[in-house]
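Bug #77: duplicate submission created two jobs. Keeping one. Sequence:
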Amino acid sequence: MPQTRTKLFAGPRLRQLRQRETLTQANLADMLDISPSYLNQLERNHRPVPHHLLQKLCERFNLTPAWFSNTKEAHTVQAMRETMADPVLKNASLPLAKMADAVHANPDLCAAFLTLYRAYKFEQERESDTLSPSPPLEPYETVGDWVQQHRNYFHELDCAAEKFYENLNLQNGLAEALKTYLLDQHGLHTQQDPALEEGGLVWRIDRHRRTILLPPDQPPESTLFYLAQIIGQRDHTRLISSILRREGPKEKNALELGRVYLGNYFAGALLLPYTRFLHAAQTMRYDIERLRRHFGTSFEQISHRLSTLQRPGMEGIPFYFLKLDIAGNILKSFSANRFSQARFGGPCPLWNIFRAFATPGQVQVQLSQTTDDSIYLNVARTVGHEGVTYTDRPRQIAIVLGCTISDAAKTVYADGLNLNDHRLVVPIGPGCRACVRDNCSHRSLPVSGRMLDTGSDARGVVPYRALPEKP
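Kept job's structure:
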């Protein structure tokens, strides 16, 4: 079976490029050897950009295909689809094609509509629980959206972390280099303190004793990350504050969570400096276990860093990264490709991230197809720490890293798979509420916002089906 290629509608980016280069449509059409009318159709998203034309644009203007990505639009379309599935909007039913047209034509208006809907949902929740008022947009959601807008890459901070790493004396290893730096530059010693675990802390600075206290027996990669966090907090607070002041979230709690996120981002970028890490990832074909051993970090740290490799002109594979617990609660979600996780309701049970909980510590590989017909290679595994005592209740967590099938062959996880044979591709959805697949035996509730037909002459794998959308 031939390989699926997702159609790329990149009209706004194409128009932005032309205006940036001060070209008329006739000028650019002549450069690309196409007609001005065809270019006009491309810019208005009436036609997708064909692969050969995409290559020509990249070569002519020294760009990468990722520059033309319609990832943000795909995420917005998915959010619109879920929102329009709410029964309160049943009389304003829109087919998917019209939602996509609206997002392409007026993305700001669609973003405002989604913000209004979330405020409406908040008011509903507040009426049902007046004792628990909270802001219309939860701070973690605001930060998640902000990070997503940056495709999980912050250039200034990433470069600062890389420069810091390159100036370290690594003769005795990274851990010793970080401890030496903290001692020489900040007068801070490091010491183990068993009492931290009892207080639920992973590190604490005793300013009176000029000492960094760390729990005993924690994994070496955790110690590395915590030391890098402290360095980021001590040395780069001004840069982090500048980023937040210039473009960060405005609400107080969201701003503070954004500060925590950027601190963690710096730590990850310090432990896995961009240029070195990208070269190693490409050389090792994105083998997470090999990369983990090579850099002395954890499976989760490597996976998260792989999802941030979007430096202009030096992009790695665009991955999505998702972390959730055994109950299906999403703890982290970032995407550098078209993949978009449901905002409302739980993830699809057919996803291999749930199978990972049944095989702790083992990698699960899956080819899956989303409802927009995009096919992804997904790598899932449990992460986290084992219990130290019988009474411990360690949190059961798994992560999944995914890339489009067009990038799959660049990874070791595609070995042994026939990427052209889609018979074993697992159809997954954005959660039952917004999923349009009627023939799924895993469906737990009907799709919202659609009229149902229970039928009388036949019965399917579920006792109802949604009537087709009106054109």
